[in-house]
Amino acid sequence: MAYSDKVIDHYTNPRNVGTLDKSSTQVGTGLVGAPECGDVMRLQIQVDENNVITDAKFKTFGCGSAIASSSLATEWLKGKSIDEAITIDNMDIVEELALPPVKIHCSVLAEDAIKAAINDYRVKNGLAPIELEKSHH
Amino acid sequence: MNLPIYLDNNATTPMDPRVLEAMIPYFTQKFGNAASRNHHFGWVAEEGVDYAREQVAKLIGASEKEIIFTSGATESDNLAIKGVFEMYKDKGNHIITAVTEHKAVLDACKHVEKLGGKVTYLPVKEDGLVDLAQLEAAMTPETILVSIMYGNNEIGVVQPVKEIAAIAHKHGALFMTDATQAVGKIPVDVNADGIDLLALSAHKMYGPKGVGALYVRRKGPRVKVTAQMDGGGHERGMRSGTLNVPGIVGLGKACELAYNEMASEAARLSALRDKLQNALTVLEESYVNGNQEHRLPHVANISFKYVEGEGLMMAMKDLAVSSGSACTSASLEPSYVLKSLGLSDDLAHSSIRFGLGRFTTEEEVDYAIEVTKKAVTHLRELSPLWEMFKEGIDLNSIEWAEH
Lengths: 137, 403
Known about the structure:
The complex is a heterodimer of chains A (137) and B (403).
Chain A: H1 5-12, E1 27-34, E2 39-47, E3 53-61, H2 64-77, H3 82-85, H4 90-97, H5 104-124
Antiparallel strand pairs in A: 1-2, 2-3
Helix pairs in contact in A: 1-2, 2-5, 4-5
Chain B: E1 5-6, H1 17-23, H2 40-60, E2 67-70, H3 73-87, E3 94-98, H4 103-114, E4 118-122, H5 132-138, E5 143-147, H6 161-170, E6 174-178, H7 190-193, E7 197-201, E8 212-216, H8 245-280, E9 286-288, E10 299-304, H9 309-315, E11 319-320, E12 322-323, H10 336-340, H11 345-349, E13 351-355, H12 362-382, H13 384-390
Parallel strand pairs in B: 1-11, 3-4, 3-5, 5-6, 6-7
Antiparallel strand pairs in B: 2-8, 7-8, 9-10, 10-13, 12-13
Helix pairs in contact in B: 1-8, 2-8, 3-4, 8-12, 9-12
C-alpha cells in the first residue's frame, strides 16, 4: 500500500514534535492508544487566557499514518479556540491525508487525543470534562 | 549499488539467472507434456522433469522416486497433512504441530479438526524452539503425524528436527517438516534427520514461483498420502495435474546450485548477518528475537523497543524488509510467531526481519545498517514511549486505553 504525498510529507517533516510542561495549568495533555495496539499518541496544547490554543506539540509511537495524523492535528489546533478545536472530526483528517480504510483508526486516535488534551485542560482549570462518545475502534 | 535494497529474502528470492537460462527452452522448443509417453515432445519434457527430480532429491538426500512436484510449499503442506490424515485415519486421528508454524500448516490442521481430527498445537520456548519433553508428553497412541517446521520464516530458528523425528517414530507416528526456509540454505538430509514427509518451495531458493515439491518416504516406512485433487493420476497418483515442466526444471536447477554453493554461501551470509546484527544491537533497547545458535544463516529478527515496526519501515527508505507489526489489519494483531515466544505486544510491534540472500553485498549491508540506525533514532525522537522510558517511567504502570 502506498502512502499519500501528504502522509509522507508529515512523516518526513513532522510539525510540532516535542513536549510542553504537563504540570502547567495552561497545558492540556492527551495520551491515547496503547503500546500493545501498536500506536500511542501524546498531544499537548498550550491555552491562553482567551481560550485560544497558542501552541501544540505531539509525540507518537505508531505507523506513518498515525504520525502524520497527529502532526496534522497540531497544525490545525494552533490558533483555534478550545470550542473550535473540539469540533475537529477524524474524517477531516482522513480526507486531508487521503488515508485508506485500514488507516482510519489513526485519525480516530488523533481525534481522541485532541479531546483528551482539551479535557485535561478543562479539568485542570476547574471545568467539567466534555462528555465524549466512547471511542469507535 | 542500486536502490532500493532487497532484504526480504524470507518472503521470496530473486531468480538466479542460471535458473532462468535452464528454464527457457522448456517454454518454447521443449514444450511437450511430460505425460505424453508416445512421442518425442513428451519424452523431451519427461527427461527434463526426471533430471529435475534427481536434482531435488540429491539436495535433501532422497531418492528421485520420493519427490512429488506441486505448485509450492503451501500445496505440499496441505497434501501432506490432509493426505496423511485421510490415509491413516484407521490408525488414529491425532496430529501434533506447533504454534509457530506457517499458516499453510496451521490452517491445514484446522481443516483436519473440522473433519473430526484432533490437533495439539505445541507452544514454543522463549527462544522459539519446541520443548522435546512437551512433545513427548503430547504423543498418544492415536498420534499419526508430527508436523514441525525445519526453519522458521519469521525468526529463522532451526528446530531440533532429528530429535523430534525420533520421538515421533518411537510412538509410531510419521514426521513431517515444512522445510521451505531451510532447504538450500542449510544441510537437510531426510535419512539422517528421520523425515517422512518434507515440503519445499522453489521461489525461496532462487527458483521460480508457483512450483515446489513434497518428499514422501518410500522405504522404512513406505508412506502414502491421499491425493487432494482428482485427475490424471500424475506423480504416483498423489498429485494430479499436467506437470509444470519449465517450473520443475527451474526448481531442479535451483536445487543443484544450492547444493553446490551452500557451504560457502552460508558462511558468507552468516558473516554479513552477524555484522548487521552486531551493528544494530549496539542501539539501546534492541533485542534479537529467537535462538541465535540454532538459526538459519541469512536472517535476523530484531526488535527496536519504543518504535513501531511499520513506521520504522517507512523511515528505512530504500530498504525492503518486513515487520512483525500488522498495523494494516483490522485486528492490529502483531505477529503470532513473536507473541508465542512470550514477547509483549509492544515488542512484537517493534520488530523488523532482515532477510539476506545470494545477491546481497557487504556494501548493501553497510548501507542498511546506517539507514536503520538513523531511522530508529529519528522515530525514537518522535516516540512518547521512548521519552517516558528515558524519564524512568514504567510503561506498565500506565493505564492504557484499550482500543
